[in-house]
Design goal:
7 strands; alpha/beta; binds 5-O-phosphono-beta-D-ribofuranosylamine; single chain; 38% helix
């Protein structure tokens, strides 16, 4: 058991971030939200972090036009806040090589489908659920995976299957999957903090 020191990354709403922060606050997850970074200065998630008094920064191509400087600034913030696990939730940018290397096997993302199906560049929010419905699949789901240089392609940490109901629309599917994401991200983080999921071991698959 060890208290996870979390660095959070999110671009818009950050509902997964909120679920994780609340679980840290009420003691149902042995973790501490150390810092949040958003590439979007107007995001709700940034305002939320400020309201919760979590150190929060806007870092993007606007603040750092040079990609390497952005990468360095991001890594410096995570190191300064003594982060040991990065959590992406709706973070729409790729991480730079310095951050990816330093936190190798310690960066998680959540995706609203059973990867490798319906992942990759451009596959986010309603596009994922529309593609699932168009395929006629009877099930969809959630994937938590390690982050590497390619969108949605890192080793899978955990997956949960969910049914597609006959009268589902992309909107109803999105709502149901997102509700389950909040629970599933927490379950996966608990398993990591309790040592029943070993991220270094997973990365060797
Ligand atoms: C979630 O569906 C997640 O799977 C995807 O982006 C969405 C983010 O939602 N990566 P939120 O910002 O956590 O509300």
């Amino acid at each position: 058991m060890h208290t996870l020191q979390l660095g959070l990354l999110s671009s818009h709403t950050g509902s997964n971030v909120r679920a994780i922060v609340q679980a840290c606050q009420n003691g149902s997850l042995d973790a501490a939200p150390r810092v949040l970074i958003s590439n979007n200065s107007k995001s709700n998630v940034l305002a939320y972090a400020h309201a919760e008094q979590i150190p929060a920064y806007h870092l993007s191509g606007q603040t750092h036009p040079e990609p390497e400087a952005l990468d360095r600034a991001m890594l410096e913030i995570f190191q300064r806040h003594e982060v040991d696990l990065l959590i992406l939730s709706g973070y729409m940018k790729k991480l730079g090589p310095l951050t990816l290397t330093y936190y190798q096997n310690h960066i998680l993302n959540i995706h609203p489908s059973l990867l490798p199906r319906y992942g990759g560049q451009g596959m986010y929010s309603s596009r994922v659920h529309e593609a699932v419905l168009a395929s006629g699949d009877a099930t969809t789901g959630i994937t938590v995976h390690l982050v590497n240089t390619e969108y949605d392609q890192g080793p899978i940490v955990a997956q949960r299957e969910l049914p597609v109901l006959p009268d589902d629309t992309a909107a109803s599917l999105a709502t149901r999957v997102l509700e389950q994401e909040h629970l599933f991200y927490l379950e996966t983080l608990r398993a990591i903090s309790q040592g029943s999921v070993d991220l270094d071991l997973l990365s060797r698959r």
